[in-house]
Specification:
By secondary structure, the protein is α/β, with parallel strands linked by helices. Among the domains are: 250-467, Vaccinia Virus protein VP39 (Rossmann fold, 3-Layer(aba) Sandwich); 472-516 and 528-678, Vaccinia Virus protein VP39 (Rossmann fold, 3-Layer(aba) Sandwich), CATH 3.40.50. Helices cover 36% and strands 16% of the residues. It has 19 helices and 19 strands. The chain has helices at 17-48, 76-139, 164-169, 206-209, 220-224, 229-232, 248-264, 288-293, 312-318, 358-366, 385-400, 422-425, 479-483, 489-514, 546-553, 572-577, 606-613, 620-630, 643-653, and strands at 6-7, 13-14, 210-212, 234-237, 240-243, 278-282, 299-304, 323-325, 340-346, 367-376, 403-409, 412-417, 536-539, 559-565, 581-585, 598-604, 631-642, 659-664, 671-677. The strands form 4 sheets. Strands 8-7-6-9-10-12-11 form a 7-stranded mixed beta sheet, sandwiched between helices. Strands 15-14-13-16-17-19-18 form a 7-stranded mixed beta sheet. Strands 3-5-4 form a 3-stranded antiparallel beta sheet. Strand 4 (234-237) and strand 5 (240-243) form a beta hairpin. Helix 2 (76-139) packs parallel to helix 19 and helix 14 (489-514) packs across helix 15 (546-553). The termini are far apart. 33% of the residues are buried. It is an enzyme of class 2 (transferase).
Length: 687
């Protein structure tokens, strides 16, 4: 009889032999079935995860040697080696792919993609600037960019800094009240409207001989009472003022020009032969002398005192001829020493014998060595003792400052300035004014008080006009001439090429809007208007005069007022020596001219120059308001500067009611163009 299963405290099992055999057979069968199931599962996992063995748990095998079955075919050491090899291969592949991708990206950036990436970056930068400006505009409130109001009707011909009544109140007298004084109240915060009957000027060259009567401030009596030759050419015809080139008065001007040429010693008005290219015409009448000399390639700058009505400067500019307000009263002219080849005074109304000859000293300062001073006046042919006394003073004083009297005919006298600086030291003691000391001999004064000393004698530019290159080769300048200004020919040559390209770009931008500027084919008749809508051009930051030079070479029918800002490098002496006209000016002050003067105003990097000064009371809005005063209705403004300043200017001109458009110069440049046009807005005629 079998015994029941007993379990002792020691855990030792007691059984008989038959039971042990049966238990062993059952265990054998169970283990075989488990092994079969394990192999089947392992085969299934191996098919789904080929690398599963690399991640298996080494201690989890149920079929080790202790159970009497074969061990796993991959030992622990083999699995470690395979895992390390797999990781190394993966790392190498990743490095190779990364290097190849980086190399390809670098190559693509260095070729075609570079421009696109930079272009997109520029677009993002521009958008950021625009957004910042918009945020600033919003933060400053709705009144920040409010449009400026229009000035009252009394301001139609207003010129700041020439307020006689205000100057008298400030204590100026004895004629000084008519001089230029720019005080705190000289700035305007309103827009000057044209007269009610204002009309866009006729295009060049028709506009040289015919202007609209309503565009200028002059009375019929002032037209009739005009006394000098150049003024008597003017005639009223309905709503026009004409300066007929075929009139007897025109013949009188031509005869007068021939007379001056003969007195100098040249024939047929060939002033170029005598070294004359630029003339400062003092008290120019209405510009007919300069208009006549245009065909002789002579450039004449008209200057005259401020006149509230019947202004010589205003009518001359309206005709499309160079002019600006300039006074021989108490201050030096804003020109460098040794600026002009000839100075001309035809009954100009200036008493040269006054102030002990101080005004003649200023004439001498701006006259080049070997240059001519032409004076036509009744005083030169005295008929009484007073006239004789005054004439003798001028005659003797001119001799004391080393001028040679070339000729005298009727009422016209021609002097020639000395070409030798030794003449001043060879004078007798006490004769004539002394030579300026180094501290007083400023080459480019800006409205400084008149000085009783001979200026310009220390300048490297003391070169006789006969020794200079003749026009038109003069404006190119050779190596020797450029050395006087410390410039290399390569610098001016590169500047000239850049401006040629720039002018072509400007013309292509403006031509579809304002020009019929097609080349004339052989045999074709002259094109009928509209053409040549631009005549008077103001370059607010002329630098070397590159814009003027490029327009000249492109044969555009314009003249350029080259302005050199006092805030920047002074290249005005070189500009004038190239045969152009120009002036020194501080753009924190009003420009000495009448409203509605220029067809085109150009400013290249002027905003950068002005903002770098950080002067109190000198804002960009003040400058743009002044530009609006100078600009003719339907006139154009071209501003070239950095993106930030151009965007700021675009926001400002909305206050002036201008139409404005920003144009990209090139993708690789931080420069932008702002093209603006001033609308023709007239005051409503009162009933």
């Amino acid at each position: 009889m079998s015994m029941p299963l007993q379990r002792g405290i020691s855990g030792v099992r007691v059984s008989d032999s038959s039971d042990d055999l049966r238990d062993s057979q059952m265990k054998d069968k169970t283990d075989k079935e488990d092994l079969a199931r394990g192999r089947s599962t392992e085969s299934h996992l191996t098919l789904r995860f080929p690398f599963a063995f690399l991640f298996s748990n080494h201690s989890s095998s149920k079929h080790g040697g202790e159970n009497g079955f074969p061990a796993d075919p991959y030992s622990a050491r083999s699995r470690h080696r395979l895992m390390l090899m797999f990781l190394k291969i993966s790392l190498v592949l990743i490095v190779v792919v990364a290097l190849a991708g980086s190399f390809w990206w670098t190559i693509s950036i260095s070729t075609s993609s570079r421009g696109h990436v930079y272009h997109n970056y520029r677009r993002l930068q521009e958008q950021l600037v625009s957004d910042l400006l918009d945020i600033e505009e919003i933060s400053l409130g709705p009144n920040r960019w409010k449009e400026l109001e229009y000035c009252n009707i009394e301001s139609e011909n207003f010129v700041p800094c020439f307020n006689v009544s205000e100057n008298l109140a400030l204590g100026y007298s004895n004629g000084d009240e008519a001089d230029r004084f720019c005080g705190p109240g000289s700035k305007q915060e309103c827009l000057v409207l044209p007269p009610v009957k204002y009309r866009v000027p006729l295009r060049w060259p028709t506009g040289k001989d015919v202007i609209w009567y309503s565009n200028v401030k002059i009375t019929a009596q002032e037209v009739v009472s005009s006394g000098s030759i150049t003024k008597r050419m003017m005639m009223m015809e309905d709503d026009q003022i004409s300066f007929r080139s075929a009139s007897p008065m025109s013949d009188e001007v031509e005869d007068y020009s021939h007379q001056i040429a003969e007195m100098i010693g040249i024939k047929k008005d060939n002033f170029i032969e005598a070294g004359v290219r630029t003339i400062l015409d003092i008290g120019c009448g209405y510009g007919s002398f300069g208009a006549h000399l245009l065909s002789k390639q002579i450039l004449t700058m008209c200057i005259a005192n401020y006149e509230a009505s019947g202004s010589q400067v205003q009518l001359t500019l309206e005709r499309g001829l160079p002019a600006m307000i300039g006074s021989f009263i108490s201050k030096q002219l804003p020109y460098p020493s040794l600026s002009f080849d000839m100075l001309h005074c035809l009954r100009c109304g200036i008493d040269w014998d006054q102030k002990d000859g101080l005004l003649l000293v200023e004439i001498d300062r701006v006259l080049k060595p070997g240059g001519y001073f032409v004076w036509t006046s009744p005083l030169t042919n005295p008929r009484n003792k007073d006239h004789l006394k005054r004439w003798n003073f001028v005659h003797d004083f001119a001799e004391s400052i080393c001028w040679k009297l070339l000729s005298q005919q009727d009422e016209t006298v021609v002097w020639k300035k000395t070409i030798k600086t030794k003449c001043y030291s060879s004078r007798k003691p006490g004769v004539g004014p002394s030579v300026c000391t180094k501290g007083h001999d400023v080459e480019s004064p800006y409205y400084r008080p008149l000085q009783m000393c001979i200026g310009g004698t220390r300048s490297r530019r003391w070169v006789p006009i006969e020794g200079r290159t003749r026009w038109p080769s003069r404006f190119h300048m050779n190596k020797t001439e450029l050395s006087l200004y410390g410039l290399h020919p390569e610098v001016l040559g590169e500047d000239a090429e850049n401006w040629k390209i720039t002018v072509r770009e400007y013309w292509s931008l403006l031509s579809p809007l304002i020009f019929s500027d097609h080349p004339k084919r052989p045999g074709d008749e002259d094109p009928s208007p509209p053409y040549n809508m631009l005549r008077n051009v103001l370059d607010m930051n002329a630098q070397y005069g590159g814009l003027n030079s490029a327009l000249l070479e492109a044969r555009k029918s314009v003249w350029v007022m080259n302005v050199v800002p006092t805030a920047g490098p002074n290249h005005l002496p070189m500009i004038l020596d190239r045969g152009f006209v120009g002036v020194l000016h501080d753009w924190c002050e009003p420009f000495p001219t009448y409203p509605r003067t220029y067809d085109l105003v150009h400013a290249d990097n002027l905003l950068s120059l002005q903002t770098s000064q950080r002067r109190k009371g000198c804002s960009l809005l003040d400058m743009f308001t002044e530009i609006d005063r100078l600009l003719r209705p339907e006139g154009w403004v071209i501003i070239r500067d950095t993106t930030l300043l151009v965007e700021k200017a675009r926001a400002l001109v909305t206050q002036l009611k201008w139409e404005a458009r920003v144009i990209e110069v090139e993708s690789s440049s931080d420069q932008r163009l702002l093209i603006c046009q001033k609308p023709l807005t007239k005051r409503q005629q009162s009933i």
